């Protein structure tokens, strides 16, 4: 039986992801390990902002979406500057972040912050995953949002600490997802939508 972390890793690989930027943190350790087990290259940084900024540079240079990861709460909010930078410069960065379990929301749980409210103003799209079975769908949607229409900000997926729950569980596993992408208009930019990463040409005037 696959667990949430494995499903996230498989969904990323299905989208054509080969590299991701991260800083180790308990809520996301399972995902990071699962990604590297599948052959994705994890590039460890020393601050979450560096992960988002590195993702920005990666996307600008390679003309493809990038993924960055952070733990939860302040770890995720440390991604904000890089994500806002990607949003302002129309660059497709997708951020995955941990979050407090649903059952502990608004009860003073460790690092319980309304991350979606913080990221929505500077992302093209953001959401959270409540059911494990929807992880592939929402990662696909994040990539689609990042790579179609007006290229928008970075995508931020905030997963919960309950990521080890089995996919057959009916209980909600706290996961959030925020995404954005960059550029204006279609810019001949095929999207890495729903399972495949598609290359795209950078427009002469991306914004």
Describe the protein's architecture and organization:
The protein has helices at residues 4-14, 26-37, 48-62, 74-77, 80-88, 115-119, 135-147; strands at residues 19-22, 41-44, 66-70, 93-99, 125-129, 154-160, 175-179. The chain is α/β, with parallel strands linked by helices. It has one domain (4-179): Rossmann fold, CATH 3.40.50.970. Strands 1, 2, 3, 4, 5, 6 and 7 form a seven-stranded mixed beta sheet that branches. The N and C termini lie far apart (44 Å).
Produce the secondary structure layout:
Elements: H1 4-14, E1 19-22, H2 26-37, E2 41-44, H3 48-62, E3 66-70, H4 74-77, H5 80-88, E4 93-99, H6 115-119, E5 125-129, H7 135-147, E6 154-160, E7 175-179
Parallel strand pairs: 1-2, 1-3, 3-4, 4-6
Antiparallel strand pairs: 4-7, 5-7, 6-7
CATH topology: Rossmann fold
Give the overall form: globular
**CATH architecture identity:** 3-Layer(aba) Sandwich
Rounded average pLDDT: 78
Question: What is the count of distinct domains?
Answer: 1
Radius of gyration of CA atoms, rounded to a whole number: 15 Å
Q: Secondary-structure element sequence? A: HEHEHEHHEHEHEE
What characteristics describe this protein?
207 residues, alpha/beta, Rossmann fold, 7-stranded mixed beta sheet, 7 helices, 7 strands
Brief synopsis:
The protein is of the alpha/beta class.
């Amino acid at each position: 039986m696959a667990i949430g972390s494995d499903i996230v890793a498989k969904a990323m690989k299905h989208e054509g992801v080969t590299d991701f930027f991260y800083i180790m943190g308990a809520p996301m350790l399972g995902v990071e390990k699962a990604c590297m087990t599948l052959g994705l290259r994890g590039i460890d940084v020393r601050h979450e902002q560096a992960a988002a900024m590195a993702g920005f540079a990666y996307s600008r240079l390679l003309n493809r979406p990038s993924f960055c990861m952070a733990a939860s709460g302040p770890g995720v909010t440390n991604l904000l500057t890089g994500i806002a930078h990607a949003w302002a410069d129309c660059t497709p960065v997708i951020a995955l972040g941990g979050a407090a379990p649903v059952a502990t929301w608004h009860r003073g749980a460790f690092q319980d912050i309304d991350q979606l409210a913080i990221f929505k103003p500077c992302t093209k799209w953001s959401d959270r995953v409540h059911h494990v079975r929807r992880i592939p769908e929402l990662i696909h949607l994040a990539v689609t949002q990042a790579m179609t229409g007006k290229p928008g900000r970075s995508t931020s997926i905030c997963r919960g600490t309950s990521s080890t729950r089995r996919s057959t569980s009916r209980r909600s596993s706290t996961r959030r997802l925020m995404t954005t992408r960059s550029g204006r208009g279609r810019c001949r930019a095929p999207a890495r939508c729903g399972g495949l990463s598609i290359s795209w040409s950078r427009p002469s005037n991306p914004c």
